[in-house]
Design goal:
The protein is built from 2 helices and no strands. The chain is an all-alpha fold and 70 residues long.
Length: 70
Amino acid sequence: MASFIVEGNHRLQGEITPQGAKNEALQVICATLLTSEDVIIDNIPDILDVNNLIKLFIDMGVTVEKSGND
């Protein structure tokens, strides 16, 4: 299984292409908490686990905007 080591005092930046699978989507959404910048995520599945995590973020005060096709 792949893993990442994140060391302090180094600026993170970059771009990844999520596959759209539920487990990967949950990890990518959680990773957005690591930055104070706006993050745009595409190809997120509209399923209960993902929607519950997004609701939890909103309850924590995170600003979440849905765009695109409803």
